[in-house]
Amino acid sequence: MPPVLSVEQVRAALALREPTRIEDPARPRAAVAVVLRADAGEPEVLLIERARHPLDPWSGHMAFPGGRVDPGDPHPRGAAERETAEEVGLSLVGAEVLGQLDDIEGRHGGRTLRLVISAFVYHLPRAPGELVLNHEVESALWFPLRSLVDPAHHVEYPTPNGGYPGILVGEPDRHVVWGLTYRFLEILFDSLGRPLPDRWDPATWTRPE
């Protein structure tokens, strides 16, 4: 098992880096919240299993809570906080903002303009209450931060376009982090000096049991 990663390490690492931002007001935007809690003795991160819906390009994926930036949102961070409250009933009012990760691009229903996604990292100073899931979320779980860099959890996620690197966080057929969420975790752990496996080297992955 890898050494414990502390909130202090995350705070210090993100304070030292300036995130890459994609500044294009014409592009559609979304934002997610990477929420850490440490009341269990070591940091855990909140992950959700998105509900399955034929119109959702990320249907059924493991993800961070978040969603589209609406016209009424003051900024992408506000959208991440609003969506977290709506999706899992968790208020981030009073939470410590540890930093922002690099913006990344995602597909957006086949439109020409690609979606820009921002990610903001939070630390909850107190134990959160019970999560209340809305219709967009099938399940939610807290997963140890250090276990995300444990090779025992690194798997190949099969898709029609070939295998992708993934992280097993629950049931093998359901709870595998891959795609956009994996890319955000790559950015986070690169900042911490604990890189995830090379996404283009299948020799670093295993297959889910």
In percent terms, what proportion of residues is strand?
25-35%
The total count of strands amounts to 11
SSE order, one letter for each helix or strand: HEEEEHEEEEEEEH
Give the overall shape.
Answer: globular
CATH architecture tag: Alpha-Beta Complex
Distance N terminus to C terminus? 19 Å
* Main beta sheet: 8 strands, mixed
Q: What's the structural domain tally?
A: 1
Determine the number of helices (DSSP H or I, runs of at least 4 residues). 3
Query: CATH class, please?
Result: Alpha Beta
Task: Give structural notes.
With 209 residues, the protein is of the alpha+beta class. It has one domain: Alpha-Beta Complex (Nucleoside Triphosphate Pyrophosphohydrolase). 17% of the residues lie in helices and 30% in strands. The chain contains 3 helices and 11 strands; from the N terminus they run αββββαβββββββα. The protein has helices at 7-15, 76-88, 179-191; strands spanning 29-37, 44-50, 62-63, 66-68, 96-100, 104-106, 115-124, 137-144, 154-159, 162-168, 176-177. Strands 1, 2, 3, 4, 5, 6, 7 and 8 form an 8-stranded mixed sheet that branches. Strands 9-10-11 form a 3-stranded antiparallel sheet. Strand 1 and strand 2 (44-50) form a beta hairpin.
